[in-house]
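Supplementary Text 2. Reproducibility record for the structural model of the 112-residue chain.

All settings were left at their defaults, and a single model was retained for analysis rather than an ensemble. We include the record here because the model underlies the residue-level annotations in Supplementary Table 4.
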Amino acid sequence: MSKLEDSPVRIKSFQFACDIVFFTRSLKRQNEYELASQLLKSGTSIGANVREAQRGVSTKDFKNKFGIALKEADETKYWLELIEATSENDCKVLIAKCEELIRIMVSIIKNS
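Retained model, structure tokens:
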């Protein structure tokens, strides 16, 4: 594995995307199609943008992609909080994982 492939943010964002895929499948079984769709888009976009950032052609490009990933993470946290507030689903673990990703990305952006 190269250094990029085993970076903690890349691993965590990929694992989080997998968690989101599994969770949205459960939401769809509960007929929560709209919320599942919104959550799936934003929750999987985090890792995609992290991966793009790590292939950035400049520091500006790197920070821009991480900025997009950070916005997607914040949106994902919103959807998770909304789902938890309006359903029987417990989203605390996913919210905590999302908050961890947010902290990591904020740190990366600040230190770039």
